[in-house]
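Section 5: illustrative case.
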């Protein structure tokens, strides 16, 4: 374990305006949101001609408030399957319906890990992925969106971390690095752990929202407008938090023993979860518990090669924020 007790550079807070302006430049303009809503409504009308009771929900970065400009949109088709049609039948039927409208590049990917229909709307240029009945993703999208409303620093931190991860090519699950979803969970966990805390743990508070998905109870406090002052005791700037985030993942996280958990608002042990050894393809080299599917490690895609790359990138980022005269440029230099 490489613990380093380092004090942050004395002028760190002077960097905050640079990082805030990067954050501002990444936020999608409101017209973009409006276009996405329009497209969702027109797709829903189309789907309802075949299945009147079906609903479309946005999930992922277009709905969790962590989406940058020009992202693809993720849509979930919620449909009561009465047993007649398998998921794949629904997917193929859906592709048929969309094909016959004016949409482009309609493709049903029935063999993907999460089967989807892909399409592009020529009017807006927006690409979407539509999956079937993946309601857990809709619920975890709401949890992330609710956290984002408590303290602005979460959105700032997560946007910058995602931007860094994309620039440095460590946001590629097919190559063994982490998903955007995993990075946002890491940011939430980090802000829950600050002293004083910047975020509460919504799943440990009295539940005001509760839904059962796939026999799993998902419950948490969602009256977040009551929590607007939660982080007020802590006045750390975005620059200081960014430094501390990378410093934690570079030098302080115990990769051998620890699992981060936003569900409990704490660190739990790998031993307690039986995540100490490789089982099948799950290697558990960096452990990030999913807030609802608790047996699901969001770090399971990371292998013995990519863990090295990931940790070197955390160290590079921490060192740049510590020593580089111009970190708001160097941090995002393409790999
Ligand atoms: P990006 O801006 O990179 O598209 P995103 O927020 O859409 O980011 P993704 O990692 O593409 O993030 O995931 C989309 C959504 O799918 C997430 O918000 C989450 O609801 C769900 N999701 C993704 N990965 C997982 C996972 N491993 N387990 C459970 N849900 C997941
Ligand atoms: Mg996405």
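Designed sequence:
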């Amino acid at each position: 374990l490489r613990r380093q007790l380092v004090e942050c550079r004395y002028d760190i807070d002077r960097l905050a305006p640079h990082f805030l302006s990067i954050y501002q430049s990444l936020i999608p303009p409101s017209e973009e949101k409006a276009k996405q809503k329009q497209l969702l409504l027109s797709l829903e009308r189309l789907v309802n001609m075949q299945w009147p009771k079906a609903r479309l929900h946005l999930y992922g970065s277009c709905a969790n408030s962590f989406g940058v400009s020009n992202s693809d949109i993720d849509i979930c088709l919620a449909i009561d399957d009465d047993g007649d049609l398998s998921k794949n039948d629904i997917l193929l039927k859906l592709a048929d319906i969309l094909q016959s409208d004016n949409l482009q590049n309609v493709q049903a990917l029935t063999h993907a890990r999460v089967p989807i229909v892909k399409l592009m709307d020529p009017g807006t240029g927006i690409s979407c992925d539509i999956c079937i009945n993946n309601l857990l993703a809709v619920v975890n999208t709401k949890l992330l969106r609710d956290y984002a409303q408590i303290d602005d620093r979460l959105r700032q931190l997560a946007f910058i971390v995602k931007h860094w991860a994309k620039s440095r090519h460590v946001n590629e699950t097919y190559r063994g690095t982490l998903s955007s979803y995993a990075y946002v969970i890491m940011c939430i966990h980090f802000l829950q752990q600050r002293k004083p805390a910047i975020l509460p743990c919504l799943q440990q508070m009295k539940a005001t929202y509760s839904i059962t998905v796939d026999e799993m109870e998902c419950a948490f406090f969602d009256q977040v407008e009551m929590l607007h002052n939660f982080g007020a005791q802590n006045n750390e700037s975005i620059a200081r938090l960014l430094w501390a985030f990378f410093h934690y993942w570079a030098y302080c996280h115990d990769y051998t023993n620890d699992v981060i958990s936003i569900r409990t608002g704490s660190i739990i042990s790998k031993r307690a979860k039986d995540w100490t050894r490789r089982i099948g393809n799950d290697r558990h080299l960096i452990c990030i518990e999913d807030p609802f599917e608790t047996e699901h490690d969001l770090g399971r895609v990371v292998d013995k090669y990519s863990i090295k790359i990931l940790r070197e990138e955390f160290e590079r980022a921490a060192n740049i924020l510590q020593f580089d005269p111009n970190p708001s440029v160097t941090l995002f230099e393409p790999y």
